């Protein structure tokens, strides 16, 4: 038990050190970037999204390449593959994900993940009215705005029993039709530790910062009929974020069990609307629960994205959170997970349905 507490303390110290170091770097910059490459923080997998995105200490299948590459060594089959599709904001935004993982030997494993978040079939009506003032619908063209990421993951067992570490190398590609494109490169690092029913996790995203360079097609803008200023090519910097996670499995009567999990996500890109928010760091807590029957059927719930809502003349200041629910079934290596997440958009709310399919085989 002392060994467990010592490791938990080391994990916390490492996470705090990374957070403070990167936050200090952000403080030394006059214009601290915020929400760069934010599409990479939405989450993947219906199991995770149904549990409030609390997966840093739990992920042990192909989705670990995204949540914490150290978990790739925990998968129960030799090969594992996951597909996910979800639609956000009444189907306007499509979020797709695919991943595959496999061991190299008894002490190491690799994985690959692809993420796409996009809005398709956007109408370009700039040339709807021709030079004679006439409307010509044939002049309408369509384009897509999409963000892509590829993650290549590696995990390895180290030192004490139950300890694994991992890292991601990631390539980011962002596209705004033929108007602009961007490329970015970055690295993540993570660790997981399991002792009995307790799991601990640490994930440092964009640990070296991720620089995304935009290239603007100026000629495309000059061909338009509007008078908007032409944007210039520039770069975005994604500062590190550190997530500490913990989970505990409880045996219930009969064939039931319960898994309780929590993640503390710490960002270093300035003040955010989170329960703990300073000009130095911001911390967003997440909570998740999974009740399993015979390790075949699962019922899940979670809460995340705590935000303070300013009051008006007739209402008081209040806190709002994003709840989520999910169910899952598994048989003969096949896993089907469905999650329902309620997103808040200003004063409106919209439900998002996430479906993912996983398959593990030898």
UniProtKB/TrEMBL annotation:
Q: Which domain of life is it from?
A: Bacteria
Keywords carried by this UniProt record: Signal
Q: What protein name is recorded for this chain? A: PorV/PorQ family protein
UniProt domain Type IX secretion system protein PorV: residue ranges: 34-155
> Which residue ranges run through the membrane?
none
Signal keyword on record: yes
Q: Which Pfam families match?
A: PorV (PF19572)
Indicate the secretion signal residues. 1-26
Q: Does the keyword Signal apply?
A: yes
